[in-house]
Amino acid sequence: FLNIVVGDSHTFSPTMLGEIRASVARGYPVQSVASAGFNLSALGFPAPFLSVAESFFPSFVPSDVSQIGNGFINLQPRDTYSLVGSVSKMAGRHTFKFGGETRTLPFHQFQVEDPAGRFTFGRLFPQGPDPLVARTDAGFGFASMLLGAGTSGKIDHRAGLSLQRLYHAFFVQHDWKASSRLTVNLGLRYDVTTGTNERYNRLAWLDLDS
Known about the structure:
- The longest helix is centred in the last third of the chain and has 7 residues, at about 140-145.
- It contains two helices and twelve strands.
- The radius of gyration is 30 Å and the shape is rod-shaped.
- With about 210 residues, the chain is mostly beta strands.
- The chain has helices spanning about 45-50, 140-145, and strands at about 1-15, 15-25, 30, 60, 75, 80-90, 95-110, 120, 150-155, 160-180, 180-195, 195-200.
- Helices cover about 5% and strands about 50% of the residues.
């Protein structure tokens, strides 16, 4: 987690004070599996496959036995850029303060289920004596895997998302010291948050009410 804050205060006159503060915050949660960084070439995959696969141990899913390997990855960097400013003015028993705030809230996401491939192995190939005649009492998925006779295979590639929304606020405040024992506070604040958008136009949806 990263957090940087820079601020400044300026006295314009004995009765007027200005303040401004800028900040940047970043969180970088990462979800991955222990095989991250695995050298896929050690398993003998061809060069075209290695050029598109991520460095994880692949998922092998033979029938009748447990799955081997899991290449899940999920990256979610979250940023907050904030700018806050205000000016205070004192006049006798009255103190006036007004200011505003703006925030940019990017949210990035890259999630892939099988970045190094997922390969399944059914019972059909080691069945016999005729491999074209399916039998429910024969065959073994792990035997198909040892023979290199796969049923299906896939590799996931998903474009990341860079979502973003904006927040703006403006306020006015009036403090009136009516007496040594009574202070009246009056204020008004307006907040608005924009809708979420994808910064590079990689996300679309259908609005049936439009």
